[in-house]
Structures are given as C-alpha cells and as structure tokens.
Amino acid sequence: MTIRESDLPGVGKKFEIELDDGEMVVVIHNTGKREVFRRADSNADAKRVFEFSDDLARTIGSIIEGAYFQPVEPDTQETTLPGGILLEWYELHPGSPLIGETLESADIGNQTGFVVVAIQRGDEVVESPTADTTLREGDTVIGVGTPEDCAAFEELLTG
C-alpha cells in the first residue's frame, strides 16, 4: 500500500491511498473538515463519498484505531493511553502565539493541563524538553492530556 501526501495551498493536505481496487483520497482542510473520495484507478475522476467535521473525523478515527474496541492485540502503539489519556501531535503554524515562547513563559501545563513530552524539530527530536526550550514555527509539539486538556491546548496554540 502506497500513501502519497501533498499540500493543497490555502486548503490543507491531500492523502492518496492506493487500495487493491482503486484509490481513496482524503482531504484535510485547514478548517478541520475532512472529505473522503474514491476512484476506481489513478486516472479516473474521484467521487466524494463522505464529509466529516473535525470532531466527527477524530471520533471515527479513534474507533477505527481501536480506542473503543480492540478485537486482537495491536501491532502498533496506541495513541489513547489507559484512563482515556491522549497522546497528541500539534504543529506550530505561522502566527501561533506560542512561537518564540519558552515552555516556562507559555505556561502550557498550568493553563491547559497538557504536558509536553517531546518536540519534533525537522529531523531532530527534543526529548523531555526543559522549561527554557523555545518553541519555533514548524515545531511539532508532542504531549499527553485528557481530551479537555488537548482541547484547551489547541485553543492556546491558535490564540
């Protein structure tokens, strides 16, 4: 199975997934909306099958991932930890009020309950970042928290 990812400037990202009997195309809009398309082969026109809001897409994703029910032991690490704690990744996009802040000055944990455990910075991973770690545009912040903590962090992330 091959997955191709491409940017859609001003729209979001597109993922083209090769299947045994055609392709599935997933478009994730900057607004959070998701659209799923199907095409018989790479030369055919894609037909929209589903459209989801951000919240519904995340719920469906959790169901598919196995967060609600796992019939067999998974081969990969889950992003939902015991007790409903989520492991989440957030990219710092241009204009985020957190850019240029240190973890201490941003006061993320006290404001949101979200705990930053690592930062992906290009090919480098900052493991267990310290309070004086400065957040940069393009960083991917990796952390844990309850769904409410994650929602509060998303609000802080976008201002």
How would you summarize the topology of this molecule?
Elements: E1 3-8, E2 12-19, E3 22-29, E4 34-39, E5 47-52, H1 54-65, E6 80-81, E7 85-91, H2 103-106, H3 108-112, E8 115-121, E9 124-127, E10 140-145, H4 147-158
Antiparallel strand pairs: 1-2, 2-3, 3-4, 4-5, 6-7, 7-10, 8-9, 8-10
Structure description:
It is a single chain. By secondary structure, the protein is of the alpha+beta class. Helices cover 21% and strands 38% of the residues. The strands form two sheets. The chain has a five-stranded antiparallel β-sheet with strand order 1-2-3-4-5. Strands 6-7-10-8-9 form a five-stranded antiparallel β-sheet, with helices on one face. The longest helix has 12 residues, at 54-65. The chain is elongated, with a radius of gyration of 18 Å.
Descriptors:
159 residues, alpha+beta, five-stranded antiparallel sheet
In short:
The chain has helices spanning 54-65, 103-106, 108-112, 147-158, and strands at residues 3-8, 12-19, 22-29, 34-39, 47-52, 80-81, 85-91, 115-121, 124-127, 140-145. The protein has 159 residues and is an alpha+beta fold.
Mean pLDDT: 87
Low-confidence stretches: 73-78
Rg, Å, rounded: 18 Å
Record field, number of beta strands: 10
Number of helices: 4
Largest sheet: 5 strands, antiparallel
Name the helicity range.
Answer: 10-25%
Structural class: alpha+beta
Strand content: 35-45%
Order of helices and strands: EEEEEHEEHHEEEH
Distance between the termini: 38 Å
**Biggest β-sheet: strands ordered side by side in the sheet:** 1-2-3-4-5
* Overall 3D form: elongated
